[in-house]
Q: What sequence folds into this?
């Protein structure tokens, strides 16, 4: 097949669904107008551990407009089949309203169904639950934890003992909540034993499988629809209990039920980035070459499930370290289960490694950029595999140039701007490139427009747009002539929009599908005696602006419309897909160099980020404008992680005390300075057929340590705790 010219891919398009979104026409989960729907509000527990001793629902039930109150006392027994498809962690997931046990604060204990949302909310406030409470354990600190994973190469202890320079540090990272703009919500509607769910999710097939497992019905009996998602950052990667509650209520009511979580409830039942305690020991020679790293990360999980995230990769592959040991532990607590949050595992680990690298650089008097370049590996030491592409060195060189790193006085506390101590810092970002099986369907209509679909999600990266770009070029059509559809389990299957795997996976599936469709049209033309292309080799035909033509003789050709009309065809269609190879002989990661400048108020300890620049080695950039949206968003998220975000638990009773957007701090416009993203011009065909390495997670990794290192440079104060507060700097 002759390669198609790339016109849409690489051009800075605005979101194709942007107008729908800004004019309020994009229907998010509970926006859907489902006729006859009633409203449900969840009542959640006010203890973290114990059992329900009584529930008085009489006041709620007698309130006008309240239709039903469902608790563990009147709820039907649910099947809760095991389910390997839904991103459920190992353990025994919460089974809604199946017993009187309370496992964490804010656990759903009842649902009130009413004619209006307001009535349901008031009804929920009238449900009187009594408990027998036990003292919960919700504090990670001081608990040894249970070993989850180990890794070792070389003899780390011996290498540490003989190292010329050693560091031994303990890091503390706060719990963070995802806080997407759109709270989680679901509409459930039954037709006999067939269930339709309109849900906020990053994985419609995951929700489909989980709902089928909970109710013990065939997977094909569940349809999940989710065309728009108002942000998620990972919180919608598994199916949380409110989905089962909505479906259960709809079944009990015999009519559709709408259930939206409140902002407060978003802190209790839809996961979070776990709190970490991380001991890291480094050994190096006087030239700054690392000889050993010993990692002992510990994070929190729930007593009922063991959460896993990718905490160990970076320590094994980021730098050229011959001796590495890792012991990952989890501490099981009376809390809800964590869930992946942007750059999961990597963001937390990179803070510890990259701050420690900065300390090492300072101690040895080596420039922090130079220190990292001295520890560049030539292959992935964890697997022995060569890198598909690794251009971290270029990221640092370009970044140092553009940021003006060379003008830096390495001495901490050496630069002042009025009341502000000014400092700069740098860190490496890295996230693994993942791909998964994905399928797509494409249809070319007689009018010369195409519809392409796959059961993907778009939680904000701009999947509608990027897939449209890939499809448009593969079909030789303009972007406006192609419509990409997603978010429905009736479409060909796609993996979760998580772990930055969607562009590589679904993008490659869309490419394959549209290549097949284009080839079909080309074959039809070259075999058609009435076509000007009759007899031409298919390999010599390209499609440009909807016209099939000989590559080197563009005058010879015809349009899709002419071809289909003459052959009396209403459309052509094709199915395609992408299956990643079972074994890839490469180590695949995206990389970045993150540069930050901060000002710290010398008297108040306030930190302001003054500017930031990240340079990415992320493979091919399909959609530069959307890439900027990701990159700037990742930097903003990183500013939050570094300086503001902190879920605070009152360990006396296990309640989260700042369960609202006034007390859980996230960056606002006033916190955000000039941010700049640069992408190395790349194309990693070893990673996947469209050459991308994933961007959505990478952009968050390395931001918090770059800021922490800049804070050190500004103040001379090293903080090993996130978020970095004014108190820590006074
Ligand atoms: Mo990302 S945490 O995999 O949505």
A:
């Amino acid at each position: 097949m002759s390669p198609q010219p790339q016109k849409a891919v690489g051009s800075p398009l605005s979101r194709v669904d942007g107008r729908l979104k800004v004019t309020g026409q994009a229907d998010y989960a509970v926006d859907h107008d489902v006729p006859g729907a009633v409203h449900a509000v969840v009542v959640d527990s006010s203890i973290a551990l114990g059992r329900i001793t009584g529930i008085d629902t009489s006041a709620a039930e007698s309130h006008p407009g309240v239709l039903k109150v469902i608790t563990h006392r009147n709820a039907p027994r649910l099947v809760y089949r095991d389910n390997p498809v839904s991103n459920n962690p190992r353990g025994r997931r919460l089974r809604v309203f199946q017993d009187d046990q309370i496992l964490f604060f804010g656990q759903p204990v009842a649902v009130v169904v009413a004619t209006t949302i307001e009535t349901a909310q008031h009804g929920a406030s009238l449900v009187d639950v009594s408990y027998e409470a036990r003292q919960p354990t919700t504090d990670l600190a001081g608990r040894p934890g249970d070993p989850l994973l180990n890794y070792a190469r070389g003899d780390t202890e011996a290498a540490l003992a003989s190292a010329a320079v050693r560091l031994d540090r303990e890091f503390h990272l706060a719990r963070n909540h995802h806080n997407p703009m759109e709270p989680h919500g679901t509409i459930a509607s039954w037709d006999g034993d067939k269930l339709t769910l309109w849900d906020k999710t990053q994985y419609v097939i995951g929700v489909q499988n989980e709902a089928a497992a909970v109710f013990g019905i065939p997977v094909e009996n569940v349809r999940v629809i989710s065309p728009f998602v108002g942000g998620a950052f990972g919180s919608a990667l598994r199916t949380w209990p409110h989905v089962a509650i909505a479906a259960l209520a709809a079944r009990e009511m015999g009519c559709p039920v709408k259930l939206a979580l409140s902002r407060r409830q978003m802190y209790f039942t839809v996961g979070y980035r776990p709190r970490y305690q991380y001991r890291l020991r480094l050994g190096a020679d006087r030239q700054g070459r690392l000889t050993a790293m010993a990692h002992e990360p510990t994070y929190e999980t729930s007593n009922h499930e063991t959460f896993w995230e990718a905490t160990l990769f970076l320590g094994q592959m980021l730098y050229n370290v011959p001796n590495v040991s890792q012991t990952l532990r989890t501490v099981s607590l009376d809390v809800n289960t964590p869930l992946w949050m942007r750059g999961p595992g990597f963001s937390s680990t990179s803070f510890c490694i990259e701050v420690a690298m900065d300390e090492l650089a300072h101690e040895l008097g080596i420039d922090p950029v130079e220190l990292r370049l001295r520890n560049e590996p030539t292959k992935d030491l964890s697997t022995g595999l060569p890198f598909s592409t690794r251009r971290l060195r270029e990221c640092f060189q370009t970044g140092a140039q553009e940021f003006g790193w060379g003008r830096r006085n390495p001495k901490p506390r050496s630069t002042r701007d009025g009341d502000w101590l000014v400092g700069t810092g740098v860190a490496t970002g890295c996230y693994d490139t993942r791909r998964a099986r994905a399928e797509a369907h494409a249809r070319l209509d007689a009018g010369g427009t195409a519809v392409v679909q796959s059961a993907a999600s778009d939680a904000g990266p701009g999947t509608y747009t990027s897939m449209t770009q890939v499809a448009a070029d593969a079909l030789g059509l303009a972007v406006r002539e192609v419509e990409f559809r997603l978010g429905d389990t009736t479409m060909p299957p796609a993996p979760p929009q998580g772990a930055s795997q969607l562009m590589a996976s679904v993008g490659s599936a869309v490419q394959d599908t549209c290549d097949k469709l284009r080839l079909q049209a080309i074959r039809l033309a070259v075999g058609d005696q009435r076509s000007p292309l009759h007899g031409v080799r298919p390999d010599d035909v390209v499609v440009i602006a909807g016209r099939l033509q000989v590559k080197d003789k563009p005058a010879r050709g015809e349009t899709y419309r002419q071809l289909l009309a003459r052959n009396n065809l209403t459309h052509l269609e094709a199915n395609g897909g992408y299956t990643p190879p079972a074994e890839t002989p490469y180590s695949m990661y995206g990389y970045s160099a993150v540069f930050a400048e901060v000002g710290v108020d010398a008297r108040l300890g306030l930190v302001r980020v003054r500017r930031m620049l990240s340079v990415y080695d992320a493979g091919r950039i399909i959609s530069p404008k959307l890439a900027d949206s990701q990159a700037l968003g990742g930097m903003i998220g990183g500013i939050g992680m570094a300086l503001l975000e902190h879920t605070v638990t009152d360990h006396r009773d296990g309640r989260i005390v700042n369960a609202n957007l006034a007390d859980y701090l996230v960056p606002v416009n006033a916190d955000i300075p000039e941010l700049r993203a640069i992408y190395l011009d790349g194309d990693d065909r070893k990673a996947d057929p469209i050459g991308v390495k994933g961007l959505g997670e990478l952009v968050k990794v390395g931001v918090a340590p770059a800021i922490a290192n800049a804070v050190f440079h500004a103040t001379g104060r090293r903080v090993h705790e996130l978020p970095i507060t004014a108190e820590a700097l006074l």
About this structure: The pocket of dioxothiomolybdenum(VI) ion is lined by residues 202, 233-234, 237, 340-342, 344, 498-499, 697 (CB under 6 Å). The chain has 16 helices and 32 strands.
